[in-house]
Amino acid sequence: MTIELSDRVKTVPPSGIRRFFEIAEERDDVISLGVGEPDFSTPWAARDAAITSLEQGKTSYTANKGKRELREAIAGYVADRFDLGYDPGEEIIVTAGASEAVDLAFRALVDPGDTVAIAQPSYISYEPGVIFAGGEVCPVPTKEEDEFRLTVDGLEDAGAADADLLVFCYPNNPTGAIMRESDLEPIAAFAREHDLTVLSDEIYAELTYDGEHTSIATLPGMRERTIVFNGFSKAHAMTGLRLGYALGPADVVGAMNRIHQYTMLSAPTTAQYAALEALDSCEDDVREMIDQYDRRRRFVLSRFREIGMDVFEAKGAFYCFPEVPSGWTAEEFAETVLREQGVAVVPGDVFGEGGEGHLRVSYATSLGDLREALTRIEAFLEEQA
Ligand code: PMP
What we know:
With 385 residues, the chain is of the alpha/beta class. It has helices at residues 7-11, 18-24, 44-55, 68-82, 97-109, 126-132, 152-158, 181-193, 250-263, 269-281, 283-306, 330-341, 367-384; strands at 31-32, 92-95, 115-120, 136-141, 165-169, 197-201, 226-231, 244-247, 319-320, 343-344, 346-347, 359-362. The protein has a seven-stranded mixed β-sheet, sandwiched between helices. Strands 9-12-11 form a three-stranded antiparallel β-sheet, covered by helices on one side. Helix 3 (44-55) crosses helix 10, helix 5 (97-109) crosses helix 6 (126-132) and helix 11 runs parallel beside helix 13 (367-384). The structure holds 4'-deoxy-4'-aminopyridoxal-5'-phosphate. 4'-deoxy-4'-aminopyridoxal-5'-phosphate binds next to helix 5.
């Protein structure tokens, strides 16, 4: 007997990154520039707070929306750092990673047949999330000539004016692109004109290396139509603790909480104690990690250019997005460089439209490994010449 799976789950293919991990397992000298998570450990003060909470037996559920104290700390943090004003009582929900927050937003806002425009290349979870919620995806490709920023022309060409929701993520995974206030203004005007709800994934906001991050929710008329996602995985190096949050209008956050209270109850309690401490006392650790990412970013960009691979100036997150040399598809190049040189990178196609012909290279790894990986890629290119 076979159990019949739902049509929704059958239409979503397995993640395209998985296959590369399987090839990588065939060698024991692989340097992985493939993963999207910090190589740093969680700052000690946050780990200590988690340990202490366990020692004190603080292992019960919390309020559905997260500990009040943590929501207040998040409200203070986003106000200080990003000029975002949200009420900890009604407008903030703490979730099991930003991933859960994004999923809750789709389930709270998407009806069957609704269209969700997604700026691509993008983080791989948005499209399946829309499909699981019963919606239709309208991909909005971004282009290297625009430095992978979302543009009104791009939105119009893709037909996003007819969409119900618009999702984007800056600083961007996989390109490392950022959008400044002046880039966001026309997007905000487009969203207002066409009555789009905006889902803005700002999980890499702290990892902005040129100027300060601007949230689209701070632009006129946008707070009431935007849901902002952030979390502790990236800047605070807490991926495995699974803690994120969403900020938005009270009715939307309330609707997300209605799903969350039945499906998750509350985000991991131990992680909430760690997060509270992370916001309270780990600013210097975060600063230090950002400085190191920035050093690595500059190294990787200059080395790619030195070995003759074009790469646009990534200014955020911890990825860069070089072009594959002519004559290769991204998939072939990534697979061959992995088999022959033991360097794992991800073909850009995996991240949707606009990603073709590129590789996502994560520099969330040591400078020593980055140096060695670039030397191997250089040797590979020389062999092919
Ligand atoms: N959004 C983006 C753009 C990401 O890159 C990631 C992690 N790779 C997430 C969300 C998910 O983060 P979390 O660990 O908080 O679920």
